[in-house]
Amino acid sequence: MSEHKITVCVNGNDMSGHAEARLTLVDFLRDVLGLTGTHIGCEHGVCGACSVIMDDKPVRSCLMYAVQADGHDVTTVEGLEADDGTMSPLQDAFWENHALQCGYCTPGMLIAGHALLSYNLSPTDEEIRHAIGGNLCRCTGYQQIVEAVRMAAEKIRGETS
Amino acid sequence: MNEVTKPRTEFRYVSKKRRVKEDKRFVTGRGKFAADINLPGTLHVAMVSSPYACAEIKSINADEALALPGVHYVLTGEELSQHINPLLSGLDLPDVKRLPLAQGRARYAGEWVAAVVAESRHIAEDAVELVEIDYESLDYVIDPEEALKPGAPLVHPENGSNVFFNRKWVWGEVEKDFAAAPHTLAFRARWSRCSTIPIETFAVTAAWDDGKDQLDVWASIQMPKYPEQIARALRIPVNAVNVHFDIDVGGSYGLKRGIRQTVIVSYLTRKLRRPVRFIEDRLENLSGGEMHGPDRIFHMQIAFDNDGIMSSLKIKATDDCGCYPGRAPLQLGKPVSAIVGPYRIGSAEYEATSVSTNKTSQEAVRGFGQGPTNFAIETAVDKVARSLGLDRDEVRRRNLIRSDEFPWRIPSGSDYDSGDYHAVLTKVMEAAKWDAIHARRDALRKDGKLAGVGIATCLEPSGGNSSFEPLFNLKNDTTTWMESCLIKVDMLGTVTVSIGTSTAGQGHETLVSTVVGEELQRDPDTIRAIHAESLMALPSNSPVGSRMAIMLGGAASGAAKKIRDQVMAIAAHNFQLPVDRLVYEGGDVSVEGDPQKTMTWTQLVDIAHRKYHEMPLGSEPGLQASFIWEVPTGGALPAADGTVQMYPCYSFEAHIPLIAIDPDTGQVEILEYYIGHDCGTVINPDIVRGMTLGGIAHAIGAALYEKFEYDDETGQHLSGSFMDYLLPSSHEVPPITMVKHYTPSPLTPMGQKGSGESGYLGGAAAIASAVNDALAPLGKEITTLPMRVRDLEKLLNGD
Asked: ipTM > 0.90?
């Protein structure tokens, strides 16, 4: 199996590592870079637990090879906090609304919500449900997640303190 | 501690909105899950699975696999079986041996027959393809009713029968009541094989330490007596097994019972002297793992009068256990604890049969068999109403146990502790605007849709008593089902609470810190809760049976009261006053009526840790306490007729959905959903709400989408991915309105009951009720779950 040296800009930092041609992006993030915040759920692109943002779009990191990310920007859940460790409004809203239980789908949900809020700061509940429609959660029934994304949008718009 | 006391209703921290402690690490990507454990030198496992529904394993040739660079070992069932004891069964079936890897014969498609160990999971998977196994295909049986027929292929020939368990109980004058009833009806209902599959598969790492002679285990586990089961299987002392319960479990809902996987990696780490890790991929998880749930055929009979008053019930439940018994057959046992639902039904007959087939073994699922039973009972109640032309809510109202009748003993021997079922039903009907929701239904019907309103009123037996174990296995005389808590107040006055189990999203750290904070009147945010390693942990029975609010909450409460007593004793000694002259407030202790005379928490703790000369004579230094609580009302074996007090506390839920069915495609859309819920005192409102809404989402899956499908002809499992086994997404789960009612339990320190299975236990029944309401104008009905698009399309439009 051929091996490739790749460099991916992860959460704003260029990170290099060796990747077998068949290594998935999620395995690269978790096993090579040690960023275990991104989770593996199904490895066939249905559950969305492994979602990361690549060049402003949420992608399934289990359906991509690491080599395909060479030279691209990737944001994982570890990159959502501010540099000083302050949670993003979306993370804080997830906590406030208990938009999770076991926490396993949460990184993917945050990525899906973050991607939505990057282009739509006034999403309707329908739009939020659409944005997280490719991410499965088995704990919450989704409603609290919808509430959290809505609250984060309000906060970012400055409607609530 | 089991005495009945007047429930508390005023709280400082309990029942108040508080952020859930655990959530912080999850929203920042800092959870520590089993797959995040990657010790230096770890070897990785992939499983070789049988492609046959039943086959003799004639030979295994691993030469080519072992020749692949990076491959370290190929473990066969034959080798493993010589070094371990078979895994525990819930039943007395000495001839049915469950082993982590098949030995001699593989009994279902997907059963693991060998484990490949390599430097990486990739290499292990490559090597799986190179293991040559010579099989001889044997006859198999997939359908449970076929499996019961004479001459059916035997899943375990040495057992002599495909019946794992059969027993019939008659409680009360069933035949007399049926003979006297003006009406009876009978029907068949089907709850198909499905479960509450978590997003995280099972994962485990084991590392043997030769210096300490100790096995360390990190696993995504939710299972009672896990360290003991590992030790028994591996024939090592329990005190050589250290399970790291601080691993976050990525969802379980009953299912994460990976004892087979754990025994495999534990054997391998001892053999190979390297840490060994196995993380199921989704195919291993769905076909070979522990993901399959109850698979039940009900034959129901009910006796009732002209007013719809139900007098007696006969339930015949046949459950397809799959290949090995484990604890799965006991899921026929929990329903004994609420066999007549929330109704004043005076007699009941219950015949429970667990049958083996050549399918993946069934495991414990949220509700432990109560969800399917509630679906069957609620279907019966709807049928009673329909047959008499009465409203479904009215029939329920006439039959529900009244609030002034508690404790209420049901025919099978359990006392229901408390409840106000009529109040909850009224509240949820008001929330749904019962008349208006029917008007909305009728408007949809006018638009050409099939539309229906559903209703279900169900119980959640909670508190996790194990009395179904002795009921189903006369050789099992277990009556202890405790939970424990240890509290340590350090020298500087901060409080650390230690619990002896892992958590899969239930928020146990929030639970104990809130309860201990309440009892000690200390801010829960300042209290740390930790998951002790098993070697440090007090006994636990793990979060099963909707028990932790009750049992862990009760243990935490008991331990905190001991701390408070110690603090009071120190103060009393220093004030030279009796304890009843002192007042405890926020950790400080004052003389009653003389608030100037106060010793602060800091002073009292300091005395406990440093000033033995100021301590009461002979007292234990430091400030720590443990409390181990036996399940309230537990501790007794069943009587000869099978009557037994099972779960101590009974939560109640009433569901009302409005659904529409596309008459052309059979597609169901849930338009509105209301639930009324009463689990007594709520410790944390967000947690209870989350569990309930999540439980409804599971129920939507069970009712409309989820099924482990098998091909009867080939015996192959057809649901090995999430393309084939459909989970509800944010599009299928609607917004849900939840209304709360609070009837405290008299059996728990704060009046709490369980809620870990809420929503799931009545949701499927309610959706089935709505679908049948939609079908009623056509004179059609369906009593088989899941009611998938294709099933409804076929029912509506024929083949």
From this structure: yes
